[in-house]
Protein: Tagaturonate reductase
Amino acid sequence: MRLHAGALDGEARASFERARAMPIRVIQIGEGIFLRGFVDWLVHRLNESGAFQGRIAVVNPRPSGTHHIHQFQEQEGLYTVTVRGLQDGNPVEHAELVTSVARAFDSTCEWSQVLQLARDPHVEIALSNTTELGVRYEPVPRPSSEAPPATYPAKLAQCLYERYRALGWQEAGRMVVVPCELIDDNGQQLRSIVERHAADWGLEDDFYRWLRDRVEFCDTLVDRIVTPYAGHPPLPYEDALAVTVEPYYLFAIRGSERLKALWPFAEVGLNVHYADDIRDFRLQKLRALNGTHTALANLGLMAGLETVLEVMQHPTLSQFVHQLVQDEIVPATESRVTRPEMLRAFARDVLERFQNPYLEHKLRSIATNAISKARIRLVPTLLDAVERLGEARRLTAAIAAVSLAYRPGMRDVAASDPAADRLMSLWQEDLEGSARAILSDAELWSADLTEVPGVLDGWVRFVATALSRGPVEAIASL
Structure:
């Protein structure tokens, strides 16, 4: 039986009925699993406490998300979050029905309805997660009301302009934008791109003033491992949108007294922090959690493994991960944060979280867009490590593993990445020639890595060993 409102009874039915009476107050661009297991779940918790009383309209940023939109529509916005893992050393496993999603719109054919929602004074928050590649500028022509522009920032710019035209300078026209993409200063970057689109489209100067005065763009940091539901604990219905999450989560939001009043998470015991500076939260997560994920994903895939847990159970690769975090990532990052003790504690938690026996965190999912992720998550740490420690053998090996995954003939290992063809074209017959071509490409890495002491030689040694004796032996040789 497929999950839908008619299949509910008892407390689940009561929760749905309470939610159904709430207005839509959030537009969410992004239909993927992360927001389902993170902000949508947090908003559900906030609604259950009575502290928000608002629901979410989900919109897909790209045509590839249409099938998820249809699933939301078929299930009346309902889905299940299963929490599985260790909390204070004790096993945790339970399922929770989430009722925070009211509607789902397919942007490819229901864009006019999304714009109508953007004009609604009840809507006060715009939420997004479109991956790191989603917040980027691409010139697009001024859009119509029927067909959406191609990129997320252009979609947001059009929604905000429609709101401005409908509500003007009324107090009800205010909006808070909460991007959850894992990039530095995500809110400010998004604002800059929205303003650039407004300039491209020749929008009036008063709209710029309105953007500055009536729309707040928040910088955020999000942290929770969310994976597809894998059958445990068993559910009494079929749920195409179910996700599994670890007990741990963290949401850090820079500033925003307005959002704090709308979303008083901490007041109901949820681990959400409003702060004037979230750089420490962001940097430790980017490097110790996401950077380590990117480092281990392609190595694990080349070793024939499928999940993070399998990597952490592998004697050689597990040792590599621990040493990478403790001996390179943490020392390289300590001088960048104001509270090194918080970084060290977070790193210890990360290693424990990776050993969660209940999560099936797929390496192939982590390896998606590995090149751009390595540029953001690994290269800055590598540069700091070499400067502070004199070398960074394991971070160099991680960059080499990403490069090797996109060597011609390795497509069964490599996950999708917009830069894949570029990297593949740089491979040559001569290994050192390949190394120089790949590592010197600043478009791939945002730096010429051949100029970093030890990286070129370390890359060549690792790749040569991996090609002759396999990736595990290459790791062992470190």
